[in-house]
């Protein structure tokens, strides 16, 4: 089940962060709390039973949706959860609420890159030494509404705004 991020989710989001990212890339609990509140309208968690299996934090910057962070607990990967989460941001493009969805990804994260490329994202910039350990990153962008709609056909939609 997809629903909006809530303050009570932050400790669970932090656990998924710790399982998903290098220690130097993990956001602090305080920053996650801020992002969940500030970007809460477009930030979601995926609940599987009683477990927070993944999350996405998307902020609107000008006319674009910036996927700040997205992760799925390793135990729940390869089940379509990442796609469902990514589609919450892509739906903003498909609905005409933004003109672009963009994100950054490690050069070594080929699994995530494959998901993004299958969704229609294109590499628009190499970010030299973007990560704290010196690894390059890539900025990926999607502007094609049709690709966004097609990729997200049949994907679970978030619960109503009240959630």
Automatic annotation (TrEMBL):
Q: Which GO terms describe its molecular function?
A: N-acetyltransferase activity
Listed A to Z, the keywords are: Acyltransferase, Cytoplasm, Transferase
Q: Where is the N-acetyltransferase domain?
A: 1-145
Q: What Gene3D superfamilies does the record tag this protein with? A: 3.40.630.30
Under the heading PROSITE patterns, the entry gives:
GNAT
Q: What EC number(s) does its UniProt record assign?
A: 2.3.1.128
Task: Name the family.
Answer: Belongs to the acetyltransferase family. RimI subfamily.
Query: What's this protein's name?
Result: Ribosomal-protein-alanine acetyltransferase
Q: What organism is recorded for this protein? A: Pyrobaculum oguniense (strain DSM 13380 / JCM 10595 / TE7)
């Amino acid at each position: 089940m997809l629903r909006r991020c809530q303050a009570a989710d932050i400790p669970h989001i932090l656990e998924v962060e710790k399982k998903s990212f290098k220690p130097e890339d993990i956001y602090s609990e305080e920053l996650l709390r801020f992002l969940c509140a500030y970007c809460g309208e477009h930030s979601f968690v995926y609940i599987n039973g009683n477990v927070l299996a993944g999350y996405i934090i998307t902020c609107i910057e000008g006319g674009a949706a910036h996927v700040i962070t997205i992760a799925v607990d390793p135990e729940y990967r390869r089940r379509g959860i990442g796609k469902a989460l990514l589609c919450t941001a892509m739906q903003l493009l498909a609905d005409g609420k933004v003109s672009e969805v963009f994100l950054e990804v490690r050069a070594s994260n080929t699994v995530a890159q494959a998901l993004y490329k299958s969704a229609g994202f294109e590499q628009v910039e190499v970010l030299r030494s973007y990560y704290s350990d010196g690894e390059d990153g890539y900025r990926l962008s999607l502007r094609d509404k049709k690709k966004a709609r097609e990729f997200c056909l049949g994907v679970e939609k978030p619960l109503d705004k009240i959630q």
